[in-house]
Design brief:
Layout (H helix, E strand, L loop, with lengths): L2 E5 L4 H13 L3 E6 L15 E5 L2 E4 L5 E5 L3 H9 L3 H6 L8 E4 L7 H6 L1 H4 L2 H15 L3 E5 L17 E2 L14 H21 L3 E6 L1 E3 L8 H10 L5 E4 L5 E2 L1 E3 H14 L2 E7 L5 E2 H12 L5 E4 L8 E4 L2 H7 L7 H16 L3
Parallel strand pairs: 1-2, 1-6, 2-5, 6-7, 7-9, 8-17, 9-14, 10-13, 11-16, 12-17
Antiparallel strand pairs: 3-4, 4-5, 12-15
Helix pairs in contact: 2-6, 6-7, 8-10, 8-12, 10-12
């Protein structure tokens, strides 16, 4: 039986990947999360909870899912110290991992990135230990999620914004990324290149733009705006002027692109994942309020953090290299999120 590892497996992207792997393969999935941000798997897994052993809990009648509630660095260090770590600690025989998805990170919405940048810088430690482990245990394939925050901020201003291409990040001629989160992700991309060239690790890097989905938490703008539209907030508040824009891509499309990219890209090359479509927050609010059947006045909160003015992707390289493009339109994806918000919070 193949065994996959998902760090940050209870966060938004991680838990969606765990569910995808569990439903589409017959493989074992080990997923790790300290639940500082992630959601307990008993609330989102469609599999019965089984026995526990230490900080590990098995899920599913076949026990193909093993959840560890801890910092990912703990099992990484355990594996480095003892080749029989999994058998001794959890009673399962794991010689090596097949696919490894490294989603563990200190991250949140704009308030976290701007409000506590030194805490976000802890991602440097997490990524360094992860790559150190991966270069010694050499899983079959590894995913490193970078971020669109790695792109130079001078290409995302109100007076000068472009559709960001993979080539706009040049390690020989660096621009300034977005806060410590962007710097940490750039460092991770550099480590991925080293891991591939010096150690033979098959690693794929992705730069997702503004991913969203029905089960995303309210620290992110799309579910928060959907909730407020469902409750018919009036006036409708927006951070900043609302004219700042992002490239919104649904989580199902993100997962599709990840799995396709891992089939063919192994040298640490980073690819965009987006729709290549720039939408402002005012436009997003308008769509949600249309769903809700009302048209409130907008109240701009100019003291709130807003980040760069315009961030969106050029998807030409991905279309040419992988033949991939997003399937879910923004309108369809937002409708799904709005319907989930109405089910959860009601409709005023």
């Amino acid at each position: 039986m193949k065994t996959h590892l998902v760090s940050g497996g209870c966060g938004f992207v991680g838990r969606n990947m765990v569910k995808r792997l569990y439903s589409t393969t017959a493989d074992r999935v080990v997923f790790v999360d300290d639940l500082s941000v992630g959601t307990d798997p008993s609330t989102w897994l469609d599999a019965p909870k089984g026995r526990s052993q230490g900080n590990g809990t098995f899920y599913g009648d076949d026990e193909r899912l093993l959840f560890l509630q801890c910092d990912i660095r703990e099992p990484l260090r355990g594996m480095l110290d003892d080749k029989d770590f999994w058998q001794k600690t959890y009673g399962v025989a794991i010689d090596r991992f097949s696919d490894v998805f490294h989603f563990a990170a200190i991250v949140g919405g704009r308030a976290k990135i701007d409000g506590d940048p030194m805490m976000v810088a802890l991602d440097l430690s997490i990524d360094a230990e992860f790559f150190y482990w991966a270069c010694r245990h050499l899983p079959d394939r590894m995913l490193y999620p970078s971020s669109s925050a790695a792109y130079p901020i001078n290409l995302q201003t109100e007076s000068h914004s472009i559709a960001l291409s993979e080539s706009d990040i040049d390690f020989d001629n660096m621009g300034q990324p977005d806060m410590t989160y962007g710097w940490s992700k750039l460092t991770g991309e550099y480590l991925a290149k080293l891991a591939a060239s010096h150690y033979g690790l098959k690693v794929t890097c992705i730069r997702p733009f503004s991913g969203y989905g029905e089960d995303q938490d309210l620290s992110y703008p799309i579910p928060a705006i959907a909730m407020r539209a469902a409750k018919k907030e009036d006036p409708f508040e927006v951070w900043g002027t609302g004219k700042q824009g992002r490239d919104f891509v649904h989580i199902d499309d993100v997962l599709d692109c990840i799995l396709l990219a891992m089939e063919t890209i192994h040298d640490g090359t980073a690819i965009n994942i987006g729709r290549g479509e720039l939408l402002s927050f005012l436009e997003i609010i308008e769509i949600f309020c249309e769903f809700a059947g009302y048209k409130p006045p907008i109240k701009c909160l100019l003291d709130k953090p807003v980040g760069v003015h315009s961030r969106y992707s050029n998807m030409d390289f991905v279309k040419e290299r992988l033949g991939w493009e997003a399937k879910i339109s923004v309108r369809e994806g937002l409708r799904r999120v709005y319907d989930a918000a109405v089910e959860k919070y009601g409709n005023a």
